[in-house]
Amino acid sequence: MTAPVLEVEDLRVDLRTPRGTAHVVNGLSYTVGAGETVAVVGESGSGKSVSVLALLGLLPARTATVTGRALLDGEDLLTMSPERLRQVRGPGVGMVFQDPMTSLNPVLTVGRQLTEGLRAHGTPSKAAARARAVELLGEVGLPDPGRAVDRYPHELSGGMRQRVVIAIALSNSPSLLIADEATTALDVTVQAQILDLVERLRTEHGTGVVWITHDLGVVAGIADRVLVMYGGRCVEDGTVDDVLERPVHPYTRGLLGALPDLATDDDADLATIPGTPPPPTDLPPGCVFWPRCPVRGDTRCETEQPPLAVVGAGGRALPHRAATWCAEREAS
Amino acid sequence: MTSPSTGAPDVLVSARGLEVHFPVRSGGALRRTTGLLRAVDGVDLDVHRGETLGLVGESGCGKSTLGNALLRLVPPTGGTVTFDGADVTRMGRRELRELRRRAGMVFQDPFASLDPRRTVAQTVAEPLEVHGLHPGRQARAARVRELLQLVGLDPGVAARYPHEFSGGQRQRVGIARALAGEPDFLVCDEAIASLDVSVQAQVLNLLRRLQRQLGLTLLFISHDLSAVRHVSDRIAVMYLGRVVEVGPASAVAAEPQMPYTRALLSAVPLPHPQLERSRQRIVLRGDVPSPSRVPSGCRFRTRCPDVFAPCPDVDPALQPVGSAPGHVAACHLHGVVGTPVERERPDAPVDAGDPAA
């Protein structure tokens, strides 16, 4: 594998809140290679969105403390000057958020919003930028791009709006695309179209993708690697087959067990995870999942934080790792 | 619940030719009516007593409006709805009040559907007061405790306010309120859509348990096909204001007979990487046409991969398909059955391929 596009090392985010300091991301490390899709999964409040907002300097500086390293093509995003960061957003990183209606400006045409980024990052002439905008809209599969370029967001359907947001994110051919619940608000049929589109762009342009979602079905279809987040920590990571077919962490197992399966005729009750995630202002000292864990054992779970350790066969380029004392207990 | 092969099923709620059309008005001072938005456009559907009927479809297909119209929460503009034999569309005030007791509703957003200034006890007790059930303060409080226990909440939470609860707990409060009048029929409109996966599973299990325990009839409206498949006895598929396929859940999920159902099912991502890699996905072209510009003939024809000669000219009727009894679909691939299109109808466009639609 070539040099990674993104290298995140020990990322930590603390947010000051009226209820005390919230430890939202607690030591997250991962890499994204060129043309590789890394899925970050977890439930609401697991810290998955904050972890990418922190990378792009999109958290309020007054309340957020971000530490660690995040190298984008070798350059640290976290220590960058605001000017340099502005240059990097666009050609370096494109971002797609969940709700296209709030990420698009309702009073500007689609074309205006697309050309803004193009002209800020080097396409000088208005005419050239407009031509490129039409081309991009065609590339993301918008019907009749020549007309769509002059439309306003409210004139488009949800799926088309999200395509526009993706077109904007890709307008400067970024080496990294970050998608935060990008298809969650869409119907499954439209979601399938968007996933196809991202897959195509990834193989054609070699874009690295960080895909944040709670939908394990989507993960199974698009991810090379999966990182499961809980309580601001990575509790399990590995190849998509490792994590979804041979999950080790009780939380990952719980998530998969809670999914109703379309493919089987099973009439049994779904497995549930009792309780709720811990508040980030008051994380348990040991294993973060301990208070809800169905297989919690000795006092070690309660007091000692398990490291992210290799499980199963070692020595592979992409190891399967989990932060749990259970694997050890099962082995012994 | 009886299958049609052994006799007529016991129908609790029934819609025939049900229509809910909204006028589309122009902007400006005159507000002239310029068109019709056909949210529900000729739906025939039976809900059998004691079953869970899943209603699926993409956003904008009219599934929520249909659920509302069955309970007359929106007035139908055409067709009939009967509830336990009585015509819902002609009910007077008193009958309507009794309908409100016998048919409950659980809404999507547990943050918006609970009054933030009322305690849980006040919220759950309101239907009891309205319908004069369990009179007396103590009897009412006892019933509230019973209802909270029924949905898996600690009766001690009765004095608390909605903001003190998580989404899953709020949805339980919403379910307790819906059950207060001892309804026969419960409409759950996207009741799990705003919940996290692990909490969704809790609420799905709860609904199934309540249905068995109380003998409820459930209409489970959702865009989540896996969840619908899991809870439903039968599944109805809606497209652009019309029910296009109905059948036993296992038959619809395993052997869908209408190209739209097939595409919808194939688009559901499954959490199995190996299966996902090998699966052939039917990707539909374009978006759903606007319900104010419904295509002529079969309304799915503008996106259908199997479109052929009769599709633009004949509006397909539901007809028996497949091998399972009670499995019906509106599709000409199973024989051309339906109403020929009146060509001069001005609001039936020839093509709905407009990108703005």
From TrEMBL, chain A:
Gene3D superfamilies: P-loop containing nucleotide triphosphate hydrolases
Keyword Cell membrane among record annotations: yes
Topological type in the membrane: Peripheral membrane protein
Entry-linked CDD domains: ABC_NikE_OppD_transporters
PROSITE patterns with a match to the protein in the record: ABC_TRANSPORTER_1, ABC_TRANSPORTER_2
Keyword Cell membrane found: yes
Name of one Pfam family that matches: oligo_HPY
GO biological process, one term: peptide transport
Main location group: membrane
Entry superkingdom: Bacteria
Molecular functions per Gene Ontology: ATP binding; ATP hydrolysis activity
Domain ABC transporter: 6-256
Keywords on record: ATP-binding, Cell membrane, Membrane, Nucleotide-binding, Transport
Coiled-coil portions: none
Annotated SUPFAM superfamilies: P-loop containing nucleoside triphosphate hydrolases (SSF52540)
Subcellular localization: Cell membrane
GO cellular component, one term: plasma membrane
Family affiliation: Belongs to the ABC transporter superfamily.
Name of the featured protein: Peptide/nickel transport system ATP-binding protein
Lineage of source species: Bacteria, Bacillati, Actinomycetota, Actinomycetes, Geodermatophilales
UniProtKB/TrEMBL annotation, chain B:
Keyword Ligase recorded: no
UniProt-recorded name of the protein: Peptide/nickel transport system ATP-binding protein/oligopeptide transport system ATP-binding protein
An example Gene Ontology molecular-function term: ATP hydrolysis activity
Lineage: superkingdom: Bacteria
Record PANTHER family: D,D-DIPEPTIDE TRANSPORT ATP-BINDING PROTEIN DDPF-RELATED, TRANSPORT ATP-BINDING PROTEIN
InterPro entries, A to Z: AAA+_ATPase, ABC_transp_ATP-bind, ABC_transporter-like_ATP-bd, ABC_transporter-like_CS, Oligopep_ABC_C, P-loop_NTPase
Any Pfam family the entry gives: ABC_tran
SMART domains reported for this sequence: AAA
Chain ranges of the ABC transporter domain: 24-265
Keywords: ATP-binding, Nucleotide-binding, Transport
One BP annotation, GO: transmembrane transport
Family: Belongs to the ABC transporter superfamily.
Organism encoding this protein: Geodermatophilus tzadiensis
